[in-house]
Structure formats: C-alpha cells, structure tokens
Amino acid sequence: MCPCAEDPEHRHEIVNPVGAHAMIEYNGVRYGVIIPCCQNCNNIHHEYRINWECQAVTILDCGAGTFTGRILDPVNNRSFKTINLVTGDQKKRIVEIEGIGFDGTEMVAKFDDPDHFLFTLAAEAMKSHRKVWSSEKHQVKVITVNEGVLPKKEKAKMPNLEALKLV
Prior knowledge:
Elements: E1 17-26, E2 29-38, E3 42-43, E4 46-47, E5 54-61, E6 66-67, E7 80-89, E8 94-101, E9 106-112, H1 116-128, E10 133-134, E11 142-145, E12 165-166
Antiparallel strand pairs: 1-2, 1-12, 2-5, 3-4, 5-6, 5-11, 7-8, 7-10, 8-9
C-alpha cells in the first residue's frame, strides 16, 4: 500500500512505483531515505507526507557522513566517490559539490535547479561542518518508518511506536 495517502479511506495500492526521497530522524540520527510510493503521490506539484507504516532504505547517514548511490555531474556524467564540500543557494536554485570521482580525480559539479535531496545534502553538509562525506563506508539499512501506524481497518494491534518523524 502507498504510505502517502492522507485519508485512510483513500489508501491505495502503489501505482507506477517510484522511490520518494525523504529525510527522517531515527534513533537520534538524521537519514536520507528512499521510500516506495506512487508516481502521482511523489511529484513537484503535490508532495505528500509519509503517513503510514512502510519500509525505507537509507541512502544518506548524517551522523556518519556517508551516502550511497551515484551523485552524477550533470555535464560530465561522472560520479562522486567522496564529497569534500557542498554549497547551496536556495534563492538562486544552485548546489555545487566538490570532491573526488571514482577515477580518483578531483571534480566539481554545479547543479542548476537541483531536487530537494541535493538541497538537503547541501544543508546537512554545511550544518555538520563535516570535511568528507564518503560513499565507500555507507551501511545501507532498511528501517520501518511510522511503525504500527496503520489505518484502523489494517491494524491487527498497535505496537510501541519508535520516535520517527519526517523532518
């Protein structure tokens, strides 16, 4: 079931599945995660909260300073292995990343009109003053978001909720 339906009466199967990027706090650590949902529920015109229990895969660990996946330079089609500096300007809609590519060479990429995930990465990197973000040491975790929070007709029992919240 799609975890984004606002109203339990409108809860629906995942149609045209996509991975929604979200930031959550879990056990005192902020994570960037991917959560399966509908393409229609995850678009720039109306992004919905994650209201119901679902699984999430960590792609960014703000506590450890690690990430997984490919952050591609949009011009040269190269990926970052480590990130040394991230800056962002939300008014100008620009994020710039400096780091080392998988080929071992230095690289700088400028993202015009980046998505929310890149702005979040920029904000977390600048806030933490972390010198290096690494893609080599990220421990991918599957975590349960909103554990036990289900529409009444889907609840078998209500377990203890962990302190999870969207941020």
